[in-house]
């Protein structure tokens, strides 16, 4: 049986922490879909097509990874895809509260779903997309946190005054 995993998120933008989780997932599962959320009520820095494009540019070397977008309930998307494994990244203990709540909620909505938590490499433990945007806005280098492609996108979004 082929094992499919869905890794959902905002990816606003994709960081090296996200990418670390994608690589780990690709090593464990036969197929992976990185599912970029398209939630019009949530305020994002990058549009859904920009976020999709940034993921796409970073997964070209991973043949079993695809990127897609979804709107509405994630579990509905997973049902359509016949996917039962939901991947989430866990950085620090403070992530757990929210992530456990989300996992329990998703299981109530779709009892066949199994949330699998993966830990990134230590160097990405304190890495968050919001922090990267703050650093970019202040004009500091972001190379350690994102790929060069995403770095260029950030520079364009937050040009030096
Ligand atoms: P969401 O809005 O769904 O939380 P994010 O793009 O912020 O979307 O995160 C998607 C997933 O990636 C979440 O499970 C989050 O905990 C995880 N994640 C975010 N940053 C990192 C990181 N540096 N290392 C590992 N996992 C991360």
Spell out the blueprint of helices and strands.
Layout (H helix, E strand, L loop, with lengths): L3 E6 L6 H13 L2 E7 L10 H11 L6 E6 L3 H8 L3 E5 L3 H17 L4 E5 L10 H9 L10 H10 L4
Adenosine-5'-diphosphate binds next to α1 and β4.
Mean pLDDT, as a whole number? 95
Straight-line N-to-C gap: 54 Å
Helical percent range? 40-55%
- Could you give the order of strands across the largest sheet? 3-2-1-4-5
Bound molecules: adenosine-5'-diphosphate
Estimate the global geometry from the Cα principal axes.
globular
Q: N-to-C SSE series?
A: EHEHEHEHEHH
Radius of gyration of CA atoms, rounded to a whole number: 16 Å
Strand content: 15-25%
Structure report:
The structure is a single chain. Helix content is 42%, strand content 18%. It is built from 6 helices and 5 strands. The protein has helices at 16-28, 48-58, 74-81, 93-109, 129-137, 148-157, and strands at residues 4-9, 31-37, 65-70, 85-89, 114-118. The protein has a 5-stranded parallel beta sheet with strand order 3-2-1-4-5. The chain binds adenosine-5'-diphosphate. Adenosine-5'-diphosphate is lined by residues 9-11, 15, 17-18, 21, 88-89, 91, 95, 120, 124, 127-129.
Looking at this protein, list some descriptive labels.
binds adenosine-5'-diphosphate, 6 helices, 5-stranded parallel β-sheet, globular, 161 residues, single chain, alpha/beta
């Amino acid at each position: 049986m082929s094992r499919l995993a869905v890794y959902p998120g905002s990816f606003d933008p994709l960081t090296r922490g996200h990418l670390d989780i994608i690589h780990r997932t690709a090593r464990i599962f036969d197929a992976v879909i990185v599912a970029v959320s398209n939630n019009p009520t949530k305020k994002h820095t990058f549009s859904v097509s920009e976020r999709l494009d940034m993921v796409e540019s970073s997964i070209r070397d991973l043949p079993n990874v695809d990127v897609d977008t979804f709107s509405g309930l994630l579990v509905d998307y997973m049902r359509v895809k016949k996917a039962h494994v939901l991947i989430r990244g866990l950085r620090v203990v403070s992530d757990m509260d929210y992530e456990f709540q989300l996992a329990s909620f998703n299981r109530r909505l779709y009892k066949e779903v199994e949330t699998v938590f993966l830990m990134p490499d230590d160097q990405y433990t304190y890495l968050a997309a919001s922090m990267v945007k703050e650093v970019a806005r202040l004009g500091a280098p972001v190379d350690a946190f994102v790929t060069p492609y995403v770095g260029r996108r950030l520079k364009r979004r937050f040009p030096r005054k």
